Amino acid sequence: MTDCFALLEEPRKPWLDLDRLKHTFLALSADAHPDRVHSSASAAEREQSAARSAELNTAYNRLCEPRERLAHLLELELNHRPANIQSVPASAMDQCFEVGQLCREADRFIAARAQITSPLLKVEAFTVAMAISERVTALQRTLEKELATLEAALKSLNDAWLSAPPVGSPGRAAQLPLERLEELFRSISYLGRCRAQLQERFVQLSM
Asked: I need a labelling partner for 49 at 20 to 30 A (CA). Which of 18, 106, 145, 192 fits?
């Protein structure tokens, strides 16, 4: 398994400075980019350069996104991907319930609006769509605050990773708060999914 942290010269940890990560990625990518390979290079060298560039892109995209980063970190430390749990984490229960209700309401309205042909009723539907969109936006802001709180919790775990025994040490996993990390991973996953659902409805309501 490729260690994306090592590939981008980052120590393994739950929270990353994305500006620093981007700076490192751009520097490494500049050296590995296929355009930098001399025209006299062999086909194997050109292929190797292209593969290196693609690998760096994949690693960067994975570490940029909190959910993917945590899934990767858990997989590296546990030697398996975290299990897909269907139940909503307690910390995300209220938000997921509220999002579900609002999405169902929006879906009913969008379906009903599609059947409207009267110009007068279309004007009324526009007003309703605006009102629902405002509620969607307000709930999106609430989710962003919750996700920011979870990001701060991730940052607080960094010290545990930085002070843990080296990678490969027998006692490393026992000294890492992996259960807490998995809890945060699930909460971020569910809230991220909720955010995507709201954004989809917002787009549909604006049509």
From this structure: 18
pLDDT the model gives residue 92:
84
**Which domains does the chain carry?**
4-64 (1.10.287.110), 90-205 (no CATH)
Nearest to 155 by CA among 59, 16, 40: 16
- Report pLDDT for 34: 64
Q: Provide the b/e sequence for 163-198 (b: ≥16 CB within 10 Å).
A: ebeeeeeeeeeeebebeebbbbbbbbbbbbebbebb
Distance CA 179, CA 201 (A): 34
Two tokens, residue 79? 């030697």
The alpha carbon of residue 55 and the mean position of all alpha carbons in its chain are separated, in whole angstroms, by 19
Q: How far apart are CA 30 and CA 42, in angstroms?
A: 19
Q: What is the pLDDT of residues 76-105, one digit of tens each?
A: 999 888 876 667 787 788 889 999 999 999
- Give the pair of three-digit tokens for residue 69: 């980063």
Give the residues of the chain that fall short of pLDDT 50: none
Contacts of 124 (CB under 8 A, 6+ apart): none
Tens digits of per-residue pLDDT, 37-57?
555 667 777 788 888 889 999
